Each structure stands twice: as structure tokens, then as C-alpha cells.
């Protein structure tokens, strides 16, 4: 059970000083896949809500990452694929993946996703024409090819090319410079701040 005292309705983010709309950040490209049919569930999970929001601390960290990218690789831009994910959508995911091999990729609702606090982001890189770079797998690919922890083995076996790995390293370098933390299983996902502290103290978006 989640108490209501530390929750925040997705509809209320636009009036909350703790949240920043991604559309206000310069250079950032946005294509929220769960606000389209191009996702694992094949349907728009966000309509009619605008989910292009991050907690102000995460938004500042994303700007630091982008500043590094603008300096080091000015021809590239960050493309945000997912940001604030309401708990109600996390529950829809869970109902769909529970008991399948995809379960490992989703946090159970009672624990919840850091996305639901506006403190995680999924993203990739696009070139000057807005075309996505090849990072080895599509977003939300549930194979081991998505796992950063296994990249050396994939490289040695020729399953990821030097180019694909170089693109992943640029994305990670930018995000690490911004203060984000990568995870072992998804090249596109980054957390901001201490996950346990966020779960305990931040307000959850529902
Ligand atoms: Zn994510």
C-alpha cells in the first residue's frame, strides 16, 4: 500500500515547483515511447497526460549531461524516451509482464520505479538530423544484448560492433558527467540520486 501523503497526481506536476517540463530544456529532443504505440505493450499508456517531466534535481543533472555533450560532441543531442512514469502505468506494466521473462525488467508496484519519482530517465542519442544512433538494440529490448554489464563479452563475441559500443560510451560519459548512475541491465536507463533515499523521501507520481 502506498500512503497518499507522499504522492502527487500526474495532473498536478505543471503547478508544482519541484518539477520541470522537459520542453523548457534547450537542445533536448523528446519522444516518449509510452505516449505512443511504439512500446512493449503496443498502446499509448500516457494519454491524455503529459509525462515529459522530471524532478528539478534530475532536470539539472540532465542539463549538466547535455552541457558535456554539447562541448564534446556538439553534433549529437540527447533524445528522451521516458521520464516521469505514473505509478498507475507501472502497475499496468506489471500486470502484463508478471510471470514472463520480461518481469526482471520491471519493478513490482509495491517497490515502484524510480521513474515514478521523476528521478530516472531513459534516453538515447540522435545526430544533427535527428536520426537515432545505433546503440546495439532498440529501446526496451529485453535480451542480454541490452545489458551494459555484459558489453565486454558481447564485444569479444562480435555481437556488438565497435561503433555501437562507442555510441553507448558517449551516452554514458555524458550522463556520468551530469551525475547520473547507469544500471547493469539497460543501456538507456539512468538514475539520479540514491535510489533508497528517493523511495523513502520523494513524492511518488500517481
Ligand atoms: Zn528506465
Structural summary, described in words:
The structure is a single chain. With 206 residues, this protein is of the alpha/beta class. The chain is 28% helix and 16% strand. The chain has helices at 56-72, 87-97, 151-156, 162-178, 195-201, and strands at 7-8, 19-21, 29-30, 53-55, 77-82, 120-126, 180-182, 189-192, 204-205. A hairpin with a 6-residue loop joins strand 7 and strand 8 (189-192). The mean pLDDT is 94.
Q: Give the CA-based shape.
A: globular
Q: What summary fits the major beta sheet?
A: 5 strands, mixed
Low-pLDDT regions = none
Task: Count the domains.
Answer: 1
Q: Give the helices and strands as they follow along the chain.
A: EEEEHEHEHHEEHE
Helix/strand class: alpha/beta
Observed structural traits:
alpha/beta; Muramoyl-pentapeptide Carboxypeptidase, domain 2; 5-stranded mixed β-sheet; two-stranded parallel ribbon; binds zinc ion
Summarize the structure.
With 206 residues, the chain is of the alpha/beta class. The protein has helices spanning 56-72, 87-97, 151-156, 162-178, 195-201, and strands spanning 7-8, 19-21, 29-30, 53-55, 77-82, 120-126, 180-182, 189-192, 204-205.
